[in-house]
Request: fold
Amino acid sequence: MKVILASDHGGINLRKEVADVLEELQIKFEDIGCECESSVDYPDYAIPAAERVADGEFDKAILICGTGIGMSISANKVKGIRAALVHDLFTAKVTREHNDSNVLCMGERVIGPGLAKEIAKTWVSTDFEAGRHERRVSKIAEYENK
Ligand code: RB5
Reply:
């Protein structure tokens, strides 16, 4: 599995914690920043990262901003992306099993690093259940392809 990791200025600290988790799990990843603590614009990170998942260069992305909301709205504009904004362990698991989400978004100003790291671990290690969920996810792709 290859993961692309990004944040805006509001998510830098949490992004570093998530990078540690990926290293611990020996998951290959590329961290595309941001490096600067001054204000940047979350779509400038969310969209390129999401495009690289949609293109098949990466399997998944983890995107972090202050709330996770800007990252999730932006990433979901990219065709083929199913970005899930997650702040608890239950939805971290179920969004992989049911939605086959390929982007995880979290907000550094919403949850603490301990929970965020557990969410990242759960999300990267849970498989899509397919079955009846396949049909539902396909309907999203059908709509995108119209
Ligand atoms: C940046 O101040 C903040 O708006 C951003 O990190 C994010 O929360 C947007 O959704």
Summary: The pocket of D-ribose is lined by residues 8, 10, 42, 65-67, 69-70 (CB under 6 Å). The longest strand covers residues 2-7. The CA atoms of residues 77 and 137 lie 16 Å apart. The chain has a mean pLDDT of 97.
